[in-house]
Specification:
The protein has 83 residues and is α+β, with helices and mostly antiparallel strands. It has one domain: GCC-box Binding Domain (2-Layer Sandwich), CATH 3.30.730. The two termini are 19 Å apart.
Length: 83
């Protein structure tokens, strides 16, 4: 089984980010548990589209894929689907 480091040719996240992908933001569908009344995590599951920088850091989220892509473009980045 390959680890994340093996699949990138032994590159660290910082090395990978320096390869010119800094202008890309990744969008992926995730489930989060949120209590609708208090806004606290732990309640009903909802779908959120998480936005991640090239190094994998979560930098935002949106309630739909279209809104996530629009937010990414509004910040001068190119959105890409991640699975």
């Amino acid at each position: 089984m390959q680890t994340g480091r093996d699949r990138t040719g032994g590159l660290s996240p910082e090395d990978f980010a320096a390869l010119g992908v800094q202008g890309i933001a990744y969008v992926r569908r995730v489930l989060e548990r949120v209590d609708a009344k208090a806004g606290a995590k732990g309640g009903e599951p909802i779908v959120v589209f998480a936005i991640h920088s090239a190094d994998g850091e979560r930098i935002g989220g949106a309630p739909s894929r279209d809104l996530a892509f629009a937010a990414v473009r509004q910040h001068g980045l190119e959105p890409v689907d991640a699975h």
